[in-house]
Amino acid sequence: MNRYHINPEITQAETLPASFYRDQATFDLIREKVFYQSWQWLGDENLVQLPKHTHPFVLMDGFLTEPMVLTKDEKGDIHCLSNVCTHRGNLVSQNPGSQRKLVCMYHGRKFGLDGKFESMPEFKEAKDFPRACEDLHRFETAQWGPMLFAQLGGEVDFRQVIEEMNQYVGFLPLDEFVFNAVQSKDYLVNAHWALYCDNYLEGFHIPFVHSDLNEALDYGSYETVLHDYFNVQVGYSEGAEDIFDLPKDHIHAGKRVAAYYFWVFPNMMFNFYPWGLSVNVVRPISLNQTKVSFLSYIYDESKLHKGAGALLDKVEREDEFVVEGVHKGLQSKYYQSGRFSPSREQGVHQFHQMLAKYLS
Fold first, then answer.
1. N or C: lower Cβ tally within 10 Å for the chain?
2. 88: containing domain
């Protein structure tokens, strides 16, 4: 895997080679080295609306296949736990709903809603029992507005990431953003998951691929700002309509910002518009297929379908077309790698650097 190296100087760097997107062994290693060492989207707090409620789920079924369960205890604290019993590996929680305790239906092992082991029948004669490992594994969690995240591994402080993103959008009342199922949708893309991220991470293609979006944005002032674990693309408008009403002390005060596009390593996007937020979660299925979930949280419905945040389905279809075209092109024996535009592809360069680092 050491063959993946990206020059830190973008003016000299080459992209990841075509073999990266074709190699099954690399795809499998990404599961362990990247996704199991990162923060992942769980959903929002409405999955466990009331105390003593649970919500079992599988994180990225078919790729990570990690059984997990969200719980809200009597104090109202939310926990993300492994849904695998520490006795014989059965699923502990089978269905969402109200539960005072987590009880495995196989042999009766009981846990608190915080994952702590409480009791187990027929274990009186077991020596050195219970041990700390009898508790359900607890994943560190973070919350941003109604959105929930869990750390599968690694050492990233996600609260610091949220704090830095709030420098841009902290003025918005995220707790008032409401999930809208009608405006949300899943897309199946016949391409490698990282190609979808590559495309998202640059506005270079906007004038060539997205005619409607290009009319809503001032391409000349479009910029990408890099942070340690994420980056943000700032889309400005040429006009005074369909832009954020920024506070006077905001870092972009006085500027006509139409959209903030956040990418968080490795596979989460948060697109803020005056009407609200579109969350995009990229989920690998196979080397050649990816599911992308668009999740809409509306704040001001009167601004929906306007400006940079309009026609999201059309923009997505246009992106799918070019991403799938690149995926087909990378099967060629005659393409090895490309170069980065120093002025337009800083985000892609950062992404490729991080992938190479995690795989090394």
1. C
2. 39-151
> In this structure, how many other beta carbons lie within 10 angstroms of the beta carbon of residue 52?
16
pTM, 2 dp? 0.95
DSSP conformational letter for 91: B
Contact predicate 39/158, CB 8 Å = yes
Give the type of residue at 3.
R
Query: What distance in Å separates the CA atoms of residue 56 and residue 71, rounded to the nearest whole number?
Result: 9
pLDDT at 270 over 90: yes
267 and 348 belong to one structural domain: yes
Q: Do 196 and 303 have their domain in common?
A: yes
Closest CA to 283 of 23, 40, 17: 40
**Residues 127 and 188 grouped into a single domain:** no
* Predicted confidence (pLDDT) per residue in 185-237, tens digit: 999 999 999 999 999 999 999 999 999 998 999 999 999 999 999 999 999 99
> Could you tell me which of 230, 179, 223 has the C-alpha nearest to residue 202?
223
pLDDT single digits (tens) 332-343: 999 999 999 999
CATH number reported for the structural domain that contains residue 270 in this entry: 3.90.380.10
| 45 alpha-carbon distance from chain centroid | 16
Containing 320, the helix (H) or strand (E) segment is: helix 312-329
Are both 212 and 334 inside the same structural domain? yes
The arithmetic mean of pLDDT across residues 253-281, rounded, is 97
- Whole-number Å distance between alpha carbons of 153 and 120: 29
DSSP line for 229-279: SEEEEEEE-SSSSS-----TTSTTTTS-EEEEEEEETTTEEEEEETTEEEE
3-state secondary structure of 244: coil
Average pLDDT value over all residues in the chain: 96
Say if residue 211 is in the same domain as residue 180: yes
Q: What is the DSSP letter of 120?
A: -
